[in-house]
Amino acid sequence: MVFYFLNSGLVDTEKDVYIIDKDVLCKVPDNYKHAGRHENMHLTFNDLMAKRAIPSEIPCISTIRNPLERFSSAFYFLRASHLKYHNSIPKEYADPNILWDHIKAKKIKYLPQSDYFPDHAELFNTENLHEHVSKYILERGGKVGGRIEMRKNPDNKLDVFLAELTSDRKQDILDTYAKDFELWEKAYAVYN
After folding, report:
1. Helices marked H in 33-112 — which ranges?
2. 122 φ, ψ to 5°?
3. What local confidence, expressed as pLDDT, does residue 150 receive?
4. Which H or E run includes 65?
5. Which residues pair with 123 in a beta bridge?
6. Overall number of domains in the chain
7. How far apart are CA 153 and CA 156, in angstroms?
8. Is the Cβ–Cβ distance between 46 and 29 less than 8 Å?
9. Could you list the residue range(s) of the whole structural domain that residue 118 is in?
10. Distance CA 186, CA 175 (A)
11. Mean pLDDT of 60-79
């Protein structure tokens, strides 16, 4: 999403503060490497306010994902990362049920998406990101080039993940991330 804004004419890349995920930074054009500090990358909105890194009333936009799709993507990302860097898959990533049990036992941190933005944030579901962002930018006098595809986890197999996940754990995920699911449905409904 950030590249839509960086290319919109609405962001002063020399003065405005923004953060680009360090995993993507190597692919970012040189004039965009003025991004903010990475130690703030994965902090919640309340953590950022406590550090006085942002004011509470700051305008905020964010993406929101279906919690089950997000969990599936994280599961396959963790598996692929461990396989790539350690040549093995640890037992907690053996199947979605074991991973969920570790998260519930707080052995692995996996916060709701809604912890990362304030209640006043404008949310865009990932399935319709181009439509949401284009409307937002154009309404503010910016320009939108072509569609920018978001990076996707090529290993994410949502159908396999859901088939392996027990129904009680699936319901537990939906209950645990109920606010995220409600926010995602609201954003999804705009264009679907």
Report:
1. 45-50, 67-86, 96-104
2. -90, 125
3. 74
4. none
5. 62
6. 1
7. 5
8. no
9. 2-189
10. 17
11. 92
